[in-house]
Amino acid sequence: MRRVSVRNLAAHKIRLFLTVFSVVLGTSFVAGSIVFTGSISNAFTSIFDKTARGVAVQVAPRNPSEMAATGAQISPGVPMPVVEQLRANRDRLGYDRLAVNYTGLVAVAAADGKALQTGNAPSIGTTYLPPGQAVAEGENVILPGGRGPVRAGEVAINSTAAEKAGLHVGSTTKVVAGQGTAGPQEVTVVGLLDWPFEVGGFVTVAFDEQTARHLFSDGNHAGTVTLSARPGVTDGELQQRVKNLIGPTLLKVQTGAEVRQESKDSINRFLQIFTYILLAFAGIGIIVGTFIIYNTFAMIVAQRNRELALLRAVGASQGQVSRSVLTEAFIVGLVGAVVGLIAGIGLAAGLRAVAIATTGLPDGGLLITPSAVIGTLLVGIVVTMLSAWLPARRAARVAPVEAMRSTMAEPRSLRRRTIAGSIIGAVAIAITVAAAMRQGVGPALGVGVGAILLIVAVVLAAPALSIPVISVLGVITRPFGKIGQLARTNAGRNPRRTAATAFALTIGLMLVAIIGTLGSTFKATVDESLNTNVKSDFFVTGVNNLPVPPPVLPAIRETPGVAEAVGAGMVVGTIDGKQVRGRAVVGGRLDEMVNYRIVKGVDLTPDGMLVDEPTARTAGWTVGKVLMFTRADGAAVPVPVVGVYERNDAVGPWLLGSTAYDQVMPGPTQMLAGVFVRAAPGVSPVQLQERLTAATAGFLTVQVQTREEFKSAASAMIDQMLGVLYAMLGLALLVAVLGIVNTLALSVVERRQEIGMERAIGMARSQVRRMIYLESVLIAIFGALLGVVLGSGLAVALVRTLREWGIGSPVLPWPLIGQTLVGAAVVGVVAAIWPAIRASRTKPLEAIAGE
Predict the structure, then answer these.
(1) Strands, DSSP E only, in 680-720?
(2) In sequence order, which residues have a C-beta less than 8 Å from that of residue 38 and are 6 or more positions away?
(3) Of the residues 218, 375, 465, 505, which has the fewest C-beta atoms closer than 10 A?
(4) CA distances for 36 relative to 238, 322, 327, angstroms
(5) Rounded CA gap, 285 and 287, in Å?
(6) 351 against 548, higher pLDDT
(7) What's phi and psi for 672, nearest 5 deg?
(8) Hey, is 109 helix, strand or coil?
(9) Distance between CA 719 and CA 518 in Å, rounded?
């Protein structure tokens, strides 16, 4: 029987190719998803593997969240007395080198004089130390042709940022450091840094130590202190000696390994949701691949019904027949999985290139892990064998004489699976609707459960559903006469095959509808908030997520044509041991710029604060309550809650009055999130924008946007976040198209005699091709309709659960839906090209004679 299996594979090369190809499709999606996911995660992790290399111990202030958790004041850095204490005890501690680093936010001007856009990647100013003084390895390497900065007015920039900015050694440019209160400073690029890691638009600007201390420190504190250990002293020993020397402080003393791990943990928490999404796509890959493989083997075993019956007639048992098919499946699965792994790696490389180009994700190279290899091989082999076993088991149970009457098994009833699918679908809809009526993470997970059950229901009920839908869609084939009628009949002849063929497209377009709806809703929420709540004509914001320097506000007010300008101050403090962030009104009345409705208490007073309804409800900040803010210097500032307003994204969760803001955020710590600007009556918007741009040009980090430009920027950010998801969807749709190609090609093999008879009675080759095209279009549109309906319903339910985050009413992307349905028809034609050509070349007499 093993010899029969091997010879059977060799004797049917076209069928073998199509079967292997189905496994390649399924496993390539799985491999591509796993490799792509692992590569992106590894790219971020590898960044921090290169951090603090050569550092034995680092002394640094605790981050604000750690300080808030202990109820302690936020430290501005490592006190200089501690630095001097460490320097004075070098031999006692047993360290080799000590380096002091000062860091902070920075913006650099490109060759055109405008701030270099980082695409939301970090833009950091740091301290340059010559290799003989630096502790960390690989972070101060100057490329040949340049040198490190040694005096004020000199900087070194990482090479990729310099290339993007059009800068080179010898270029003169401007930088803005910290909060930008000192304004732009003219500097000369004296060297290019060979930085050990790059993240999209990541920018590093290195200054000499004295300049960095002046720009990023109050003069009494250092940013961090790093130490390297002498031979014979372990990192742990040096860490303990440093702790014993400086005693209990607000500082944290970590080994280099602990610094790297802390950085990894922080980015992993940030990427957790992103990782879950990518893993979900890998799961979808397994589902889609399973159906493609199962569909292929179900067709092949059905085609071999007479052959298997003949084996039974000459003495083969049911078990032997099943094992022979499983042997073939193992060989096919192994070969297909290996090829699919290679194809999946190629797909992951393409996706990674697209993601890096469109979203600024880090480039860490492809990561092909043992789990990706083993997982792909297991999926290919196990899924293939399971997919072959079920139809083989059914075929082996058929009596030999009965099976040899026809080349195809009799179709089984759809009644049981349709009833089961209807019941599961009803339960899924009930769960989804119930979840949509509530808000929060729990209901959102409920929608996810409903989605899974709906997919199961579709798998069970889609064959029965395809019969009436294909019949209705058959209207589009009527202009083609009898050819169209044949195509409609072929598409509806085997509902199971039609539903299985369309399933991959259904899943892909379901995700398109969900993601498209979320994107449209997010954009509509931003637009509605601006149109309804904001009365200002211009928005002045910082580039690259930097704050707006406070001196920008008076410069704007002095610009001719400005009727009013109000700043939105950034507030960071501690309340009851927890760090809180909010906004404050600076230099004017907010109600002149933003519409907000007070529901309890009174409007904002200079020494009070307003709270929105969700925050008042969850935090218990009710009218009359006095909140005690703890400043960075440890001082306590009482601020009473004077009013509660309806949730308003233009205002934020809470708002301080101007007097309270000055007390909670002393002058040196004040920063603006932005400035609202209203034009005077009769002033040309174009002219005023030009004046505002000229008035703020000297600050470098400031941009002036109209309402429409602000909306476009927000939309672009949403599109950027969805870019990777759309890239993954492209992979899903590609696999769906290839799955249709494969199924149609197998269908042509199955119907070889039928097509030969049609050719014999006068059907032209062009008519055969047209029939296959139309059949494929009907199947593709059926899958698209099913996916769009499912995806739109689930997206609406999901958006409803996000109301507490300020997400507005769901907005269906009708243009995208229309394009999707038209695209499905195009997909049907493209997918049918090769099968149609192959069918049209069928020789009538050979086909009628059979094998």
Answers:
(1) 702-706
(2) 367, 369, 371, 372
(3) 218
(4) 40, 37, 32
(5) 5
(6) 548
(7) -110, 135
(8) strand
(9) 11
Neighbours of 761 (CB within 10 A): 8
- CB of 769 closer than 8 Å to CB of 406: no
Residue 615 structure tokens: 């925050």
Q: Are 60 and 223 in contact (CB under 8 A)?
A: yes
User: 602, 606, 603, 554: which is closest to 584 by C-alpha?
Assistant: 606
What single-letter DSSP state applies at residue 537? S
Cα separation, 217 vs 499, whole angstroms: 66
What is the bridge-based pairing of β-strands 636-645 and 598-601?
A: antiparallel
- The answer to whether 141 touches 194, Cβ cutoff 8 Å, is yes
Beta bridge partners of 100: 225
Name which residue leads in pLDDT, 500 or 298: 500
Cα separation of 297 and 291, whole Å? 10
Contact assessment for residue 609 and residue 655, using Cβ atoms and an 8 Å cutoff? yes
Q: Give the pLDDT confidence score for residue 759 in this predicted structure.
A: 83
Percentage above 90 pLDDT, the chain: 23
Distance CA 424, CA 458 (A): 9
Contact 759, 844 (CB under 8 A): yes
From residue 630, how far is each of 35, 568, 654, 656, 702 by CA, in Å?
47, 20, 16, 14, 30
pLDDT category of residue 151 using cuts at 50, 70 and 90? very high
Rg (CA), the chain: 33
Nearest to 745 by CA among 831, 838, 847, 835: 835
* CA quadruple 514, 517, 523, 528: dihedral sign: negative
Residue by residue, DSSP assigns 181-209 as TT--EEEEEEEEE--S---TT-EEEEE-H
The beta strands (E) that lie in 250-323 are given as: 251-255
Residue corresponding to tokens 């083969």: 316
H-type alpha helices, 304-399: 305-313, 318-359, 370-397
Task: Determine the Cα–Cα distance for residues 177 and 380; give it in Å rounded to an integer.
Answer: 55
Is 0.70 surpassed by the pTM of this model?
no
Judge whether residue 72 has pLDDT over 70.
no
Q: What is the DSSP string of 62-105?
A: PPHHHHHHHTPPPP-SEEHHHHHHHHHTHHHHTEEEEEEE--EE
∠167-169-173 over CA atoms, to 5°?
50
| Burial group, residue 143, by CB count within 10 angstroms (0-12, 13-18, 19+) | middle
Beta strands per DSSP E along 398-547? 538-542
Question: Which pLDDT score, from 0 to 100, does residue 303 have?
Answer: 65
CA distances from 274 to 189, 269, 689, 826 (A): 37, 10, 38, 32
Can you tell me the distance from the alpha carbon of 253 to that of 239, in angstroms, rounded to the nearest whole number? 7
Cα(524)–Cα(715) distance, rounded to whole angstroms? 9
Q: Of 535, 544, 649, which is closest to residue 594 (Cα–Cα)? A: 535
Q: List Cα–Cα distances, 354 to 201, 276, 778, in angstroms.
A: 15, 20, 32
Q: Strand 123-127 vs strand 104-108: parallel, antiparallel, or unpaired?
A: antiparallel
Give the pair of three-digit tokens for residue 109: 């001007």
Terminal-to-terminal C-alpha distance of the chain: 21
Q: What is the pLDDT of residues 402-438, one digit of tens each?
A: 555 544 444 567 888 899 999 999 999 999 999 888 8
Burial 74-84 (b: 16+ CB within 10 A, else e): bbbbbbbebbe
Count CB-CB contacts under 10 A for residue 555. Answer: 18
Question: What does DSSP assign to residue 478?
Answer: G
Taking the domains of the chain in order of start, what are their residue ranges? Answer: 1-52+259-410, 57-258, 466-533+708-851, 547-700
CA 235 – CA 53 distance, rounded (Å): 12
For residues 749 and 758, give the distance between their C-alpha atoms in angstroms, rounded to a whole number: 14
Check pLDDT > 60 for residue 360.
no
